[in-house]
Design brief:
By secondary structure, the protein is α+β, with helices and mostly antiparallel strands. It has 10 helices and 24 strands.
């Protein structure tokens, strides 16, 4: 029994050993075979080297539009989302003055052209008589303007006298021969002295205005011009007197005295007739000046008519036409400062201009972008920028659509100056999409593979197939049932992770990939 047990025990131990050996030989080797059996074929073809960057989609054109001249917004002709054509007026501010200047300049141009045509055509006797009549009529109108100047002076005297001797009579006591004093106590002695002295001077000014109105020879136009000018000076003295009197009553110590309220009211009332006098004399001077211009123009027209077709005069008038045209051009330029015009065909993305609101000069009012034309703006790391060139092609996938949707782009610009962020230098690059695509929107994130080089008939293997040993870099090549480590030299890394093999392989070899750990 004991002998049987010993024999049985040996068989059991032997069986366990055999099972263990079989496990280590076949079980483990079978598992390794699954891993070691991963092979690829060394490819021969085109290898593309790429630089991977990430950027942002932006319009190829984006502008902030503003008025060159501020003003109240008169019209807004667009809304957000509009597609507008180049040259369309988008908004405008009030420009009545500029429009008036344009009309005046256009009239001047028309007149200059008409005169030039007349010079070239030559004048007829009838035209000469008409021009002569126009001169005489203009001179008569001017003489009429001068002839009623005494009436104007008497009206001026009446208003000025009313302001001083009626409206302000309660404030002063005295007469021209003996001087004047205030009828109330002033708290400002210097103002009192100034006001009383000026009151005495005002009597002289009124006397001068009245005396000249009775003795003026209106046929002496130069004398009339001088009288009108002197009358303005006398009125300015009276105005200074009224202002100084008002200052005397407006100092803080006087304002607290309610008993002076009536005097302050008198000063206010005096300003009415005085302003009327100033206005009337100014109107008369302007009317005479305008009539003189009409006389001068009529005389010029007559002189041109009588001069015939002298070539020098024609050339001079041609220059006058050019000057008039320049004024028209300048007027159009002034109007253009009050409108916003679309500089290109595109889409409106922002409108801040509101009807009736004031829009300041150079303040952005409308933003527009190019319609459908987008580009990518990205930063190239310093280590890669030397490999990227203008016109390099690129493959782009946008995160909104996923990696399976690819777009083509081309590098159009690389900034020569670096941008430093957190101590790292990068260079801004711009890529243009090859084709328009309605799905692309501004602000989308774009992942870009820029093809920096392309090599034909190049042998390549997956980068992880290349290993490093004592003799250098090698790949494991399967030959029949055996494997061999082949020393290789590698080149650039392709866009899909493939490594260029410059020597050691010819293509078509079966490469065993290393075991993944």
């Amino acid at each position: 029994m004991k002998k049987f047990w010993n024999t049985y025990k040996k068989w059991i131990i032997g069986l366990i050993v055999i099972v263990a050996v079989l496990y280590f030989v076949f079980g483990r080797s079978g598992k390794n075979d699954d891993t070691n059996s991963q092979t690829v074929v060394a490819q021969k073809g085109t290898l593309e080297e790429v630089v991977n960057i990430t950027g942002r989609v932006k319009p190829s054109q984006e502008v902030n539009l503003s008025f060159e001249r501020g003003g109240v917004v008169r019209s807004v002709n667009t809304v957000v989302g509009d597609v507008v054509q180049k040259g369309r007026v988008l908004a405008s501010v009030s420009n009545g003055d500029a429009q008036g200047s344009l009309q005046e300049a256009q009239a001047g141009l028309d007149s200059a052209r008409a005169t030039l045509d007349q010079l070239k055509r030559g004048a007829r006797d009838e035209e000469k008589r008409i021009k002569q009549t126009a001169v005489e009529s203009a001179k008569q109108d001017l003489a009429n303007s001068y002839s009623n100047t005494p009436d104007t002076l008497r009206n001026v005297y009446t208003n000025a006298s009313d302001a001083v001797r009626v409206k302000l009579s309660a404030l002063f006591d005295g007469r021209a021969g003996s001087g004047y004093k205030l009828t109330f106590a002033s708290c400002d002695s210097q103002s009192e002295i100034d006001a009383t002295n000026l009151r005495l001077d005002v009597d002289t000014s009124l006397k001068n205005i009245l005396s000249v109105s009775d003795t003026l020879n209106t046929s002496d136009q130069s004398a009339v011009d001088a009288v009108l000018k002197n009358t303005v000076t006398e009125l300015q003295k009276i105005d200074q007197f009224v202002r100084r009197t008002n200052d005397m009553l407006s100092v803080s110590c006087a304002l607290s005295n309610r008993n002076l309220d009536a005097f302050r009211q008198s000063v206010t009332l005096a300003k009415g007739p005085l302003n009327a006098a100033l206005s009337e004399i100014s109107t008369k001077q302007n009317a005479i000046a305008s009539q003189k211009l009409l006389v001068q123009r009529a005389e010029n027209d007559l002189a041109i008519t009588l001069s015939g077709t002298d070539e020098d005069k024609i050339r001079a008038q041609e220059a006058a036409v050019k000057q008039a045209q320049a004024r028209v051009t300048q007027s159009y330029a002034s109007i253009s400062q009050t409108i916003i015009v679309a500089p290109f065909t595109g889409r409106i993305t922002k409108v801040d201009a509101k009807l009736g609101q004031f829009a300041g000069a150079s303040t952005p009012q409308i933003v527009m972008i190019s319609d459908g034309a987008f580009e990518i703006e990205a930063k190239i790391p310093e280590v890669d920028v030397s490999r990227v060139k203008i016109n390099n092609t690129a493959s782009v996938w946008i995160e909104a659509f996923g990696k399976d949707t690819l777009f083509e782009a081309v590098v159009t610009k690389i900034d020569p100056a670096e941008t430093v962020s957190d101590g790292v230098s990068t260079y801004k690059a711009t890529l243009q999409f090859v084709e328009k695509d309605a799905r692309i929107k501004s602000g989308m994130t774009a992942n870009v593979d820029i093809v920096t080089s392309k090599k034909e008939n190049t042998v390549s293997v997956p980068a992880r197939a290349v290993q490093t040993g004592d003799k250098g870099r090698f790949v494991t090549v399967q030959k029949n049932d055996a494997t061999e480590e082949v020393i290789i030299k590698q080149g650039t890394l392709g866009k899909n992770g493939e490594r260029e093999i410059t020597s050691g392989l010819v293509g078509g070899e079966v490469i065993v990939l290393p075991i993944k750990k």
